[in-house]
Write a structure and sequence with these properties.
The chain is of the alpha+beta class and 192 residues long. 27% of the residues lie in helices and 45% in strands.
């Protein structure tokens, strides 16, 4: 398990090339995400996220839950199918309550397809953050919504330094905070 601490910002698509110009080369990952829940939305009620994401052709199943000290707890396994993926996630340390909650099965509710440009940066105090530029579409039912966002994810070091870097980046490029995760925005589309 790892603890995910990230800051997200809405961006205009025109801003992403400007950020790339300042920070140089980025690694490109094509992502296609399917978010799952039970028929009665048990996972959403607990603020849990269960997804399978294709990352440049590799299937990764992920489970996220709220962390006691902010951020999110996160478990990941490479697996082509969400059902065996749930078992593997629990074996890797995800709460066994996930197995009980999904015993009746899960179904895809919504998703996202996007290109991520990412780069690992080392800040002045040695803190390491991943700067990610995401652009694509959220899907839910028959609804689609384009999005562009910037994420700063702490990989190692000080949360305070990561927050300061993210705030300076947001100020420099006129980015607005994005309080909702992709899954929340996509789930809303599914229920329009």
């Amino acid at each position: 398990m790892s603890r995910e601490f990230e800051l997200k910002y809405r961006a205009d698509s025109a801003v992403l090339p400007a950020i790339r110009e300042v920070y140089g080369d980025f690694f490109t990952t094509e992502m296609e995400t399917t978010y799952y829940d039970t028929e009665d939305l048990k996972l959403a009620v607990h603020h849990w996220t269960l997804r399978k994401r294709m990352e440049n052709g590799v299937a990764v199943c992920t489970f996220k839950s709220p962390a006691d000290n902010g951020g999110r707890n996160e478990w990941e396994v490479e697996c082509d199918n969400i059902l065996p993926g749930i078992m593997q996630l629990c074996q890797k340390g995800a709460p066994w309550e996930l197995m009980r909650a999904t015993a009746g099965g899960v179904r895809p509710f919504c998703g996202a397809r996007f290109t991520r440009l990412s780069k690992l940066l080392t800040l002045e105090d040695g803190t390491k953050v991943e700067l990610a530029l995401d652009e694509g579409i959220l899907t839910g039912g028959s609804h689609r919504q384009s999005f562009a966002e910037v994420e700063v994810e702490l990989k190692e070091g000080s949360e305070e330094s990561a927050v300061l870097f993210a705030r300076l980046l947001a100020h420099r490029f006129s980015l607005e905070p994005e309080p909702e995760a992709k899954v929340v925005r996509a789930r809303k589309l599914a229920f329009l």
